[in-house]
Structure formats: structure tokens, C-alpha cells
Automatic annotation (TrEMBL):
Residues 7-26 bind DNA. Pfam families: TetR_C_46 (PF21943), TetR_N (PF00440). Residues 1-44 form the HTH tetR-type domain. The keyword Hydrolase does not apply. Keywords: DNA-binding, Transcription, Transcription regulation. This is TetR/AcrR family transcriptional regulator.
Length: 173
């Protein structure tokens, strides 16, 4: 259900608890939502597989994208809401949570992609990739204009080009 249509009474009813418990443990509906997003995004940041020097860059990127798409698909409603599908994204605390997740994800990506001495420029390039990933995934999950396979191809190919070609070119500029 859309965020605006959900009440703490409905949440309590679905959870089989008194509404007062929701307020006691989480405070407002917004606080509960932020806690759900924190929990969900903490899982996203850790989705990167451990660094495996036997895997090629292409295999590693493909695996990372697959794990990201699995997480997005399994939590589509909350994931889309966290990316402000309902206009909730202007909330400064929600923005802080999402930005922290982006930063953690970039650090995991750097480790998995075997980047020994990443620069701030490379980190910035990888952060911009998150925008592409968000829009492409929204096209798949919400708009239904791309299939999962198409989004995988788009994201894996783009990440490879960013790491191999674009980031080094940006460094030289």
C-alpha cells in the first residue's frame, strides 16, 4: 500500500500487536518507516560478494549486479519507497540513510573489484552509477518498460565501461 494510505493502527493489526507498542518501540509512522529502510538498506550495502581473485572482472560485475537485482526484487515496494517513489524522499533523514548506503556500497564494490588504491574521483564515478541503477531498476519494477535481463545487461555493461574506460578518462581530465 502507498505510504500515505497506511496507518499505525493497520500496521499493528497486521503485526498482531496493540498500536501502543508500535509507538513505544518506534515512535511515529515515519520513524517506523525509517527503521525499515535502515534495515533494508543495511542489507543492500552488504550484498557484494567477498573479493574472489579467481573471478574475472566481468564475472564479478555480473554477480554484483545479480545480487543487487535480487535484493531490489525481493523488497520492491520498500525499495521503491526508499528511493522516493511516493515523494517521501525529500525527508532529510531518509536522504542521509540512502546516501550512507551508497557510500558503503561503493566501498564494497571497490573491494570486490580489486581496486587497491581507489581515488575520490573513482568513488564519485561509482556513486553516479547508483543513479543509473535506481532509474533502470525503477523501469523494470515499477514502469515495466525493461525486463530484469535487460536491466542486468544495462547495469553490468555500464559498470564495466565506467570502471575500465570512463573513470580513468575522468581522472585524466
Amino acid at each position: 500500500m502507498p505510504y500515505a494510505d497506511v496507518s499505525t493502527a493497520a500496521i499493528a493489526r497486521e503485526a498482531g500487536v496493540q498500536r501502543g507498542l508500535i509507538h513505544y518501540y518506534f515512535g511515529t509512522k515515519r520513524d517506523l518507516f525509517l527503521e525499515v529502510v535502515r534495515d533494508l538498506t543495511a542489507g543492500y550495502a552488504g550484498q557484494a560478494p567477498p573479493a574472489d581473485p579467481t573471478m574475472s572482472l566481468e564475472e564479478t560485475v555480473g554477480l554484483c549486479v545479480r545480487l543487487f537485482l535480487d535484493a531490489a526484487e525481493n523488497n520492491a515496494d520498500t525499495w521503491l519507497a526508499a528511493l522516493d517513489a511516493e515523494g517521501f524522499g525529500q525527508d532529510p533523514e531518509l536522504r542521509r540513510i540512502v546516501n550512507k548506503t551508497r557510500d558503503l556500497t561503493v566501498e564494497h564494490m571497490l573491494a570486490v573489484l580489486h581496486v587497491p588504491e581507489p581515488t575520490d574521483t573513482l568513488r564519485a564515478v561509482l556513486r553516479t552509477y547508483s543513479g543509473l541503477a535506481e532509474v533502470a531498476t525503477r523501469q523494470w519494477l515499477q514502469e515495466k518498460t525493461l525486463s530484469r535481463a535487460q536491466v542486468h545487461t544495462l547495469l553490468a555493461g555500464s559498470l564495466l565501461v565506467l570502471v575500465r574506460d570512463i573513470a580513468p578518462a575522468v581522472e585524466q581530465t
